[in-house]
Amino acid sequence: MTTPSEHLIVIPGEMDAIQLEGAIGKLRVRVDSPLAPIAFQLWDCFDQSLRQASKVLVEFDNRFLLISGGGGCVMQSAQRSGNFVSDLESGPVKQGLRKVPPLRALLVSGAGQLEIRRIGVLDSLQKTQARAVVHTLRTEDGVVTLVLMQRLRGYDKAFAVLETALKHLATAKALVIDAFQSIRPNLACYTAKPDFGFGSDTPIYDVVTEIIEGLLDVAHANEAGIVADHDTEFLHDYRVAIRKIRSVLNACKGVYSPDQMNALNQSFDDLMAPTGRLRDLDVQELDQAGYFEIVPENLHPGLHLMARAFHKQRMAEHRKLAKYLSSRPYQKTIRALAAQVSEAGALEPGPKADQAGVRFARKMILKRYKKLQQAVQAGGKHASDAQLHDIRVHCKRLRYALELFAPLFPSKGVKPVLKSLKKAQEDLGAFNDCVVQQDALQRFLNTHAAKSKADSREIALSVGGVVTVLTHRQSIARAKSVAHLSRLGSPEYQKNLRQILTAPETKE
């Protein structure tokens, strides 16, 4: 079922039938008795992809209703095999959710009771000229009303009068997303890239400490999702946040005392270490889904055997990590770190702590860029796998530095520099993925004990087919990587980078 945009009106609070009747002139409103209340749920991803796109997804009575910011809506069955968009049945709601990140699960972001009643607009002869279905959604925090209007043939004027009156109740400037925010006001907003408030005059000690504090909050926000195993992005974001902290500490020697720096490095190394194996298995399962598309169907039996083995390993590893993240020692460690970072002056300063953030960052970023240049020159057009991996690491370190310290520099200049760097990193990432996948498949082949010789043969044939395709993709990714890396060393790129790093300082 698809409902055109002019057929849906969203009203903050409850619809006032008396006020509505007073706004439709000589016509009258008949309000039927409500049906028995039913449960409803509001759905969104953890990163609020729908809210960011000004959309609302409501489930009730085994149906999904997707509402856009402009007031348009579509509806379809809520039957599904899971809570990812790909798990939904084909239909207008699934189509409307096509831009939701495919690796993000849909999660319940609010719930309450839904009351449905019908209203009719009658003329003086008691003849119905327009109809509407009123959905009143109630939570503990508030009420929002959805009115789905039904146009009757030959009564366009009555429909227009009803629509105008309802829009008046909704208020012309009321936004759909704001109306729904009123029934879930305590919904926390999550971002993997926190905003920082430091400026060019902020001492580097305060800059680095604020970055660490923000990223530690990101890691902490993902813990519950990792334990619940909603989707693999929770662990991904957790690891990226910790990796960025480690990268900042590595780049900012002298900001904290040597003892303090060593203690912080050890703490974040300890947080990262238990997560590595599960992330490897997450990536393997995600890659596994694509293997069926790149090899002939006669090689699929071995892929199914391999997928079951990887899934079994992953479930065991997840249980281990979930237990660790829920443990008292872990919670005590993460709380102590958060308290230390958030308390002014708790981290022991080093000899460079008082330097202006912008001056320190300039030197650090240029140093990282020079290391990237040296790695690219050392590899040349015929860089080995190990050299390309090293270049990828340097790209990542430079990108982290530019992103995290961006508030110190003109935003217009940083974006194009980052864009080229991200493209190079994507190409290198595609190359590295091919290498890692082949290594993982070979390691599985060498270590997995199949139940029978027939299973071993099926797995070996499947691995051989996948590796053949990955080898071809690897050569293509290598060529793209080398071509793009040459641009990072171009005079134009160097000029753009130096321009933002030498731009006049702005007073904050």
Automatic annotation (TrEMBL):
Residues 201-499 form the CHAD domain. It comes from the Bacteria. PANTHER family: CHAD DOMAIN-CONTAINING PROTEIN (PTHR39339:SF1), SLR1444 PROTEIN (PTHR39339). This is CHAD domain-containing protein. It comes from Phaeobacter gallaeciensis. The lineage of its organism: Bacteria, Pseudomonadati, Pseudomonadota, Alphaproteobacteria, Rhodobacterales.
